[in-house]
Amino acid sequence: MSTSTIDRLEGSRRAARAAAAERTISKAEGWRRRGPLLPALIFTVIVTQLPFLVTIWYSLRGQNLLRPGEDIFVGLSNYVDIAQDSTFRQTALNSVVITLGCVLVAMVLGIVLALLLDRPFLGRGVARTMLITPFLVMPVATSVLWSVALLNPTYGLLNWTLGLFGIEAVDWTSTYPIIAILMALVWQWTPFMMLLVLAGLQAQAKDVLEAASVDGAGPWRTFRSITLPHLRRYIELGVLLGVIYVVNTFDQIYLMTAGGPGTASANLPFYIYQRAFLGFDIGQAAAMGVVVVIATIIVASAALRLIFRSFEVKE
């Protein structure tokens, strides 16, 4: 074997040893950086994953607190019963209608308000504070405000306003329960959407808008071709966060309509509450909770992929 070949082999060995040492150092550095996060990770697993595993265990059992002697393992029987439960399907549909209705209407109103607040005018700071206030109100207070002060069929402000135009009073929470709930939810979540969109508007490069104005683009053309594509990631983030939070709505439904009339305005969290704490059917309530969690994870994962893809395209 020639000297040059030996030298090449020795150089390859040295390079391999150096690469292995570098990988060892990088792994040690990675663990050193992740180390401070381990307590938070362990705490998160204990608080979220262990209860979820317990919920899965309960969902496989036919446990009813009214019949403690019948606590037996039933496998997937609870999930089969859920698939055949027409009330579960109705409340699932109500959840979709309430969630999408609230998020989409709140986002449209939030965009409009953000565009208005993005331009200077006298009292803009006061207007921003007033518009943000509904998001800071507790959901329980929001429910009482809307059901008693605004939507009451006898002395509610909305019916009083309609009476000025000769329209008869409407019992909103009984006749149109989902619309009543949507009113309260949209009022509460519009400020959140407005803040996200307003942050996006203020992060927009002003020189691009000035160039569009110089080129003769009108306000609508500028918004459609420049501003709206720039706001895409903010809108997607607002829709994702809104869906995750609004799908868990309970306060407004419990206090404004109690899920009625019948189950016309009940959503999945409220129906699960009824099965667990009014019907005492722990097994089926746990199975419903597992189904809702899995569905939420699927929707959130798809939405996150869409958002991350938009960031990659932007970069």
UniProtKB/TrEMBL annotation:
Main location (coarse class): membrane
Pfam families reported in the protein's UniProt record: BPD_transp_1
Bilayer-spanning residue ranges: 37-60, 96-117, 129-155, 175-199, 231-247, 285-308
Keyword Cell membrane: yes
Alphabetical keyword list: Cell membrane, Membrane, Transmembrane, Transmembrane helix, Transport
Membrane topology qualifier: Multi-pass membrane protein
Entry-linked InterPro entries: MetI-like, MetI-like_sf
Record has Ligase as a keyword: no
Cell compartment(s), UniProt: Cell membrane
Domain ABC transmembrane type-1: 92-303
PANTHER family reported in the protein's UniProt record: BLR7065 PROTEIN, INTEGRAL MEMBRANE SUGAR TRANSPORT PROTEIN
Similarity annotation: Belongs to the binding-protein-dependent transport system permease family.
UniProt name for this protein: Carbohydrate ABC transporter permease
Organism of derivation: Promicromonospora kroppenstedtii
